[in-house]
Amino acid sequence: MATEKKEYWRWHEYNWHDPDIDWRDAEIITAGVDVGSVSSQAVILVDGKIYACANMRTGHSSPESARKVANWALEGTGMRIEDIHYVVGTGYGRVKVPFANRAITEIACHARGAVEIYGNSVRTVLDMGGQDLKVIRCDERGKVLNFLMNEKCAAGTGRGMEVMADLLGVPIGEVGPRSLQVDEEPPPVSNTCVLFAKSEALGLLREGWPTEKVLAAFCRAMTDRVYALLEELGVQRDLAITGGIAKNVGIVKRLERKLGFEALKTEKDPQLAGAWGAALFAKVLYQKERAQKRQAC
Amino acid sequence: MFDKFREWYENRHEYAKDWKEKTGGKVVGYICTYIPEEILYAANVLPVRILGGHEPESIGLAEPYLFGMYCPFCRDCLAQGLQGKYAYLDGIVIGQSCIHIRQTFFSWRQRIPHEFDHYIPMPMNVVTPRASIPFLRKELEIFKSALERWLEKEITDDDLRRGIEIVNKNRRLMKKVYNLRREPNPKLTGLEAMYMVVSSQLTDKNEHSDAIEEMFNNGLATRDLGRESSIRLMTVGSENDDVEFTKMVEETLGATIVIEDHCTGSRYFWEEVKLDEKDPLTAIAERYVTRTPCPQRDWEPERIRFRRILDLIEEFGVQGVLLIQQKFCDPHELDIPALRDLLNEKGIKNYFLEFDVTVPVGQFRIRVEAFLETFASDELFAEDIV
């Protein structure tokens, strides 16, 4: 009997829209589409207010992923992509969003989105994405003042976390909480390479380490790497964490312990920050374009 | 207008082979720009710089001879030689340089057939010129004698003066072209400047100078590239002839590199030999000791290069600096943290990038694009919408 292989790395994909808003009454409809290396998000704003969103895994084709995630966000709303006045593409596939009016880097979009999600006290944004890490310094409007990114390797990123979840057979949503179920923090695994970390974790399992302890060693290594990048740019409070790993308490708690203060908290999905920021930029750009057209008339 | 330089850059080996055939002369390769090309020109020898080929697949050839944590540039250079791409070289010369490049020279000397080689012990701490100039003069004399023995021909003071004039003229002309980059609407791009300077290291400078003069005759000074509103960048760091990266910055992202501090750029040619009434070898020694230094010879009490970088930023109206370091390039790796602090202190935006044999254009694009976005006005935020 064939058994289906369980995909432990699979994180929660979803779409949502606000049934209380009637988009047909709206003056301005804008969207941000963030096609990342691992996940894609779409955020639809109706007069600047969030109306719909979706968050799903990026496929092999950026244009297709962009269309898919936008359509999924619009599912059941009656709105079509063509009804959106202005679309900004962002993320690794930003220039490959076929229906975008403009592309803006995810660095700018995450900063803007973080201020929207966490409030204007944000001065440092840590975006822990699928294949890269970004530390962004911004002003109260979410304008980027300075930033740093990790070098070429994907250690300390979402993809590394997925690899580990699969290896240890722990659903990705449980990695964080279970990594905290240790009496004493173990030494970190190699923090320079996902592949090295993976073989090191295998060795630890063979030595008889419980899964929680291996998870703790891995989360600690990731935290050290993220912390080093934060230190390099210098952390100014308040700190907001965006991207998929913001949902991993095993990393966030350890990071807060090292920093000596807590990052801002939110009920909203921090993974939407890039797309949300892009949709907000889209609104400003559309308003400007409209004003220019009016002046020309 | 700069096509000639691009062609020379792309067909460097064909050029050198043709030159040999045409003139019957000898060609000598060098790896670091600290070699007195004036003496080689005096001897009617063509100096050409050995550069990497930016081909990741070939760099493995250097693996048995150069430690894996030596910079990709020195490994790439050796790999080119091991593949026989420089088989036309009659000799190789080096002026004492960083340990990585030195190792390329030593491996080359051992593994690749050649007639002539010479190691010039360039003084390292050049901030003490009083002692360094007489030291280097003596070493240049030894180099000249070695060349004379090899070529079986005397190199006279008149030959040296001629050699100095050939190289000086080329420097003067390139500086004249560089002055056009200061203008609000630069007359050339960074890529064009790169093609010009690097091809000067690969071709006969007489011919190269003629090509620059021809550009001026063809209206270089009145050219309009429409780049008056583009963001003005400076690049600083290790050897850099990465065409793909420069194209991405200037063509895809629309910024303009208006000046640079690389040995493939301004650092190579900025200072002339001041002959005056001096003995030619002393004048040459003086030029190499006092030229804008490479970080491997620019230490205490004050880094000369830093002051120069700040001056260039002001003179060329630079808005932001890209700090470029070849992976594992120790001299620049040591310099960059201090340089970054200085730039930050002066309020000059900067961003660091680590280069390899080839650069990951997609990853670098995000970084450079986001860096450029920080210069953009508040267009994405303006609350002044009517």
Terminal CA distance of chain A: 71 Å
Which chain pair has the greatest contact? A-B, 25 and 19 residues
Count the strands of chain B? 8
* CA-atom Rg of chain B in angstroms: 21 Å
**Multimer state:** heterodimer
Helix content estimate of chain A: 25-40%
CATH class of the largest domain in chain A: Alpha Beta
SS summary, helix count of chain B: 15
The SSE order of chain A reads: EEEEHEEHEEEHHHHEHH
SSE pattern of chain B, N- to C-terminal: HHEHEHEHEHHHHEHEHHHEHEH
Proportion in β-strands of chain A? 15-25%
Helical proportion of chain B, percent range: 40-55%
Class based on secondary structure composition and strand pairing of chain B? alpha/beta
Task: Provide the gyration radius of chain A in Å.
Answer: 20 Å
CATH architecture of the largest domain in chain A, by name, is 2-Layer Sandwich
Short précis:
With 297 residues, chain A is an alpha/beta fold. In chain A, 39% of the residues lie in helices and 19% in strands. Chain B is of the alpha/beta class.
SSE topology sketch:
The complex is a heterodimer of chains A (297) and B (386).
Chain A: E1 14-17, E2 29-35, E3 39-46, E4 49-57, H1 62-74, E5 86-90, E6 102-103, H2 106-118, E7 124-128, E8 133-138, E9 144-149, H3 158-168, H4 172-179, H5 194-206, H6 211-233, E10 239-242, H7 249-259, H8 273-296
Parallel strand pairs in A: 2-5, 5-6, 7-10
Antiparallel strand pairs in A: 1-4, 2-3, 3-4, 7-8, 8-9
Helix pairs in contact in A: 2-8, 3-5, 4-6, 5-6, 6-7
Chain B: H1 3-10, H2 12-23, E1 27-30, H3 37-42, E2 46-49, H4 72-82, E3 91-95, H5 99-111, E4 116-120, H6 129-151, H7 157-179, H8 190-200, H9 205-217, E5 232-237, H10 243-252, E6 256-261, H11 266-269, H12 280-290, H13 304-315, E7 320-326, H14 330-345, E8 349-355, H15 361-373
Parallel strand pairs in B: 1-2, 1-3, 3-4, 5-6, 5-7, 7-8
